[in-house]
Amino acid sequence: MRGNCSIHKARIKILCFLIFFAFKIYFVILEKVIEEYKKHGFQVNQDVPGNVYWEALYHASPNAKVILTVRDSTEAWKKSFVSFLKQENSRWGNPGFWILHRLISLGWTSPNMHRANWTTQEVMKKGFFRNCDQDFYPAPWTVFTADQLIKIMQPYWEASVDQYEAQIRRVKEVVPKERLLIWNVKDGWEPVCKFLGKPVPNIPIPHDNKTGDTEFIRRTLIDGPPGKEAQEWSGWYIKKAFCQVLFVGGLFIYEKKTNFRLTKSIFNFAKSKL
């Protein structure tokens, strides 16, 4: 399944499929990914990095069906994509933005969050921005605000538009018509249910993470298990660094009061062994 998470996750759950979602894949040997699918009974793949590496997954999955979600126009997709980048990069304000990216660059988040950020970085650089060599997640140390990072991203937005259109063309070239559904959420349940052989639910199509929705990411990522885990790890690293600073600072004060007696003793001992 290729497309954005905002509709797929809730919709596919209603249709009773088990989802293999988002950053659970990372970048590993494809055979191991398929092995995990089978082990846990996953039936659907969506969102990054799966939608970037959809073709390899498709060829490794006999009889797989593909739902290609599209917007009303390329411009509509670009507007949504850019708005999302601006919104999420600006979420923490200043200096929260810089502090968060420094925690990430120092590795002071959970291992899972570290892999998720690394995956996002690789997908943005190789998938959306067409093999660019600029780092975004974490931002370079000299990038202090979200506005600075957004300005760095802007030249790559047109490349992302080209990638979006190229991916649509590629899906149409690779996937036989009988195994492909090109679907706009505005088309409603019927095309999806007919394509998957499922009854049409009697409820509206769920639509999470709409453009401008700041609560979806907070609810599922920041306040959810991934965010809480990352906060615990970050807290531990910060406390560890604080203790190290206290130790070094206390040692320096002690040495200064004793005219650096311990330091001189260590140097004299080292010289006697040379």
Automatic annotation (TrEMBL):
- Annotated transmembrane regions: 12-30
Record's Pfam families?
Sulfotransfer_4
Q: Which InterPro entries match?
A: P-loop_NTPase, Sulfotransfer_4
Keywords, in A-Z order: Membrane, Transmembrane, Transmembrane helix
Q: What is this protein called?
A: Sulfotransferase
Give the species. Answer: Oikopleura dioica
